[in-house]
Design goal:
By secondary structure, the chain is mainly alpha-helical. It has 4 domains: 14-249 and 271-383, no CATH class; 401-527, 3-Layer(aba) Sandwich (Rossmann fold), CATH 3.40.50; 583-648, Serine Threonine Protein Phosphatase 5, Tetratricopeptide repeat; 664-766, Tetratricopeptide repeat domain (Serine Threonine Protein Phosphatase 5, Tetratricopeptide repeat, Alpha Horseshoe), CATH 1.25.40. The protein contains 34 helices and 4 strands. A 4-stranded mixed beta sheet has the order 1-2-4-3, with helices on both faces. 50% of the residues are buried.
């Protein structure tokens, strides 16, 4: 690979230019390697491994679901190449080799971007490493990032020289279409390249002739690249499958953090300004893209400006698009800025000053990379939050590995119910003998299956809903992930531990296994008696390494707190903090424990410490909650507003804020209406399809109360009428509507609403 700088940073001193470029490029590559080398943690990898195993064992490519028992036989088309690669890697070197593949993908992406780069593009690449590392975790999507960088590098080389090896494009596309659906991003680069060439043809001069020559040479290979997408097991049907998946994904994406948008407000910027966190990378690259686009426009480079600005939209709209956006900024933005600096440099007459400025910039970037590399290898980057990974190779700490091994070893009965998060891991570790209930695939499950899964997790395990599901699918075993990634996991554990229908047979600090009480399982339950109130946590032995011990004590602390074993939880928190004292999660947890044990003032200090360490949605919401409990309402409102501004799902935080205004004494209906409006504005357009109307009902109920408090009964009635439309079979909204009608003097309307409510209530009585 030819790491050759093609743009100048300081004209007149080519030796300096090359040294600066090579230095920054080496720093970027080392940083990329360390950022990419981490334990396997992506939840999609499991079902991709299981798919690769199925193809290898059956010598065929499935077109229907073969991994689950709830959607078996439903249409499902997905490229299997990545699964085969990961399966082969696992057979050769286990999870460790898969981790090394992730590191290679991260390094390879950066190297491809710098093939013909400059010192400027190498500097931007250092800033972009966190975004690239995020999307090159081992999973099928990593191939899209690598191949996007390869496509962009080849097309940009052709634009610069007119002699790139474009024949590689269709070959790479054949691989891409069989590795990941993201091959459409490569197709998008084709018209983008054409736009750049056409923009150069708009102006007379030698540049126009060169653009014509380059485009004529490229067109056959670009056409061949599009045709190459048909070289897959399904041919053109893959596009229909992508269309179906996209329709389902619009709702499916609501539950996936990487599909949320990037917050664009001052609180989000401020939270991302820390030099030790990579979260600010997206904001830095957005600023660079806008500056580079403005410079491109000033120099009549319309095509480059269009691509840079167009690339910002998906990057802001979806977190997961940050990596391909980073590729565009490094290559095109870096090229524009390097050329601009080269033009501006002659105006600075002192060569020594130019060299000093260049050296200073390099030193700052090197210091930033060194600091972040130190944080990576010491695990500070991963310990501070709740990332399900650590530095090094192997399996991540958050997977319910020991619980799954217990199910296999003891051959627990019936189908196994699993939650969405670990479904892929279950299909891989329990299969092929067992299939999963649900996993991370948009198809074949669809939105209704996900909604039913959510209702089950929110319902009591002893409810009729669970009994119906158990009968329908012969559910006799449940595996719950309880590692410290989501507070709702603790609520599920509490519910199952208190259940009369399900009994725990296995419990550690990461997972719990429950078996349904039946005459057939009585002997099994007697052999594995587990008491949630007394089971030792963390389950011995505690790992010997610093990372293993930290995660064991941190996870145990969360589980013990959920089980109201507060003294043991405080002890576990202390053990974890003795290993790493700057964990925001642990300070929040200790704050909750101190509050529960009667130390509210100390509790506030812990929550404030957590926010100081990491002002995210979790820590800010926790601080706002304690402010509300202590009656410090202005501080609570301000903190809830901050939480909403940095949240992945801001609509829910604004909804909570609105109800906080309504429930305050005295009530603040005007402020509540404003917050309800913000919640509605931030919510996905298809919110009703996602949650069955629950969010919109909550909004309408709150607005009705607020308008009633303000004495505007017409608006209050309109809000309840909206609820009636959303819940046409429920009598409660009609009863509420009748009350408002009567208060507003609309007696006839009130009587009709009451009659409808009574008829509906009678019809619902069994």
């Amino acid at each position: 690979m030819d790491l050759v700088p093609t743009d100048n940073l300081a004209p007149g001193n080519s030796a300096l230019q090359r040294r600066l470029f090579l230095l920054l490029a080496c720093i970027a590559l080392v940083y990329a390697f360390l950022a990419g080398l981490r334990t396997v943690s992506d939840t999609d990898l499991g079902w991709q491994l299981a798919t690769g195993r199925w193809v290898a064992q059956h010598y065929s490519v499935p077109s229907t679901d073969v991994l689950s028992y709830t959607a078996a036989g439903q249409p499902w088309i997905y490229p299997v190449g990545a699964g085969l690669i990961f399966y082969a890697a696992y057979l050769l070197g286990g999870y460790a080799l898969i981790s090394w593949i992730g590191a290679a993908a991260c390094v390879g992406t950066v190297a491809l971007l710098l093939r013909r780069g400059s010192a400027v593009s190498a500097g931007i690449a250092i800033l972009a490493v966190p975004l690239i590392a995020y999307r090159t975790a081992p999973r099928a999507d990593m191939f899209t990032v690598v191949l996007f960088a390869a496509f962009l590098s080849l097309l940009w080389e052709n634009y610069q020289t007119g002699h790139a090896r474009l024949w590689l494009l269709p070959l790479l596309m054949v691989a891409w279409v069989n590795l990941h659906p993201g091959f459409v991003a490569g197709l998008a680069l084709v018209p983008a390249y054409v736009v750049v060439e056409l923009s150069d043809m708009m102006f007379p001069g030698p540049g126009r002739n060169e653009a014509v020559r380059r485009l004529r040479r490229a067109v056959p290979w670009l056409v061949a690249t599009a045709v190459a997408t048909l070289v897959n097991p399904w041919g053109g049907k893959i596009y229909a499958a992508l269309a179906r998946q996209q329709r389902v994904s619009e709702a499916h994406q609501f539950w996936i953090g990487e599909w949320t948008s990037v917050p664009m407000n001052w609180n989000a910027f401020a939270a991302a300004l820390s030099l030790r966190q990579g979260a600010g990378a997206i904001y830095a690259l957005l600023a660079i893209a806008v500056i580079a686009a403005a410079i491109a426009l000033l120099h009549a480079q319309l095509g480059k400006a269009i691509i840079l600005l167009a690339a910002t939209y998906p990057a802001v709209r979806y977190y997961r698009m940050g990596a391909v956006f980073a590729c565009v900024v490094v290559v095109i933005g870096g090229g524009v800025l390097a050329t601009a600096l080269a033009r501006a440099a002659p105006r600075m007459q002192a060569a020594r000053l130019r060299s000093l400025l260049a050296a200073t910039a390099v030193a700052l970037l090197a210091a930033l990379a060194l600091l972040r590399c130190f944080d990576l290898v010491t695990n500070r980057t991963y310990f501070q939050g709740t990332e399900a990974t650590t530095f090094g190779a192997g399996l991540g700490w958050a997977f319910p590995q020991r619980g799954a091994e217990f199910i296999v070893r003891e051959n627990l009965p019936g189908e196994v119910f699993n939650t969405y998060d670990e479904g892929g891991f279950v299909s891989w570790t329990l299969g092929p003998e067992r299939r999963d209930y649900i996993d991370g695939r948009a198809l074949p499950f669809g939105i209704k299956a996900i909604q039913r899964h959510q209702r089950l997790l929110q319902a009591s395990p002893d409810s009729a809903l669970w009994q119906e599901e158990a009968r329908r699918y012969n559910l006799n075993t449940v595996i719950l992930p309880i590692a410290r990634l989501d507070e709702s996991r603790y609520a599920r554990l509490q519910n199952f531990c208190a259940s009369k229908t399900w009994q725990p047979v296995y419990l550690d600090e990461v997972s719990a296994v429950f078996v349904r009480r039946t005459p057939q399982t009585e002997d099994l339950l007697q052999r594995f008696p587990v008491n949630c109130a007394t089971a030792p946590l963390p389950a011995p032995p505690v790992g010997k390494s610093r990372a293993e011990a930290f995660h064991a004590w941190s996870n145990a602390a969360g589980v013990l707190a959920a089980l109201d074993r507060n003294s043991a939880a405080l002890s576990a928190v202390a053990n974890a903090l003795s290993i790493f004292p700057d964990s925001a999660f642990l300070h929040v947890l200790r704050g909750n424990l101190l509050l529960a044990t009667g130390s509210p003032s100390e509790s506030v200090q812990e929550f404030q410490a957590a926010v100081a360490l990491d002002a995210n949605e979790f820590t800010l919401s926790a601080l706002a909650s304690i402010y509300r409990k202590m009656g410090r309402m202005p501080a609570a409102y301000a903190t809830m507003e901050r939480a909403a501004q940095v949240a992945q799902r801001p609509e829910m935080e604004y909804l909570n804020l609105a109800y906080a205004y309504l429930q305050s004494r005295p009530s603040q209906p005007e402020a509540a209406l404003k917050a309800f409006g913000e919640a509605t504005r931030r919510a996905p357009r298809n919110m009703s399809a996602i949650d069955g109307g629950t969010f919109n009902v909550a909004i309408a109920q709150g607005r009705s109360s607020a308008w009633q408090s303000l004495g505007n009964l017409d608006e209050a009635i309109a809000a309840v009428q909206e609820i009636v439309q959303l819940q046409p079979s429920s009598p409660e909204p009609l009863t509420r509507l009748a009350q408002l009608y009567r208060m507003n003097g609309q007696v006839e309307e009130a009587n009709r609403a009451e009659e409808r409510a009574a008829a509906m209530t009678k019809a619902n009585v069994p």
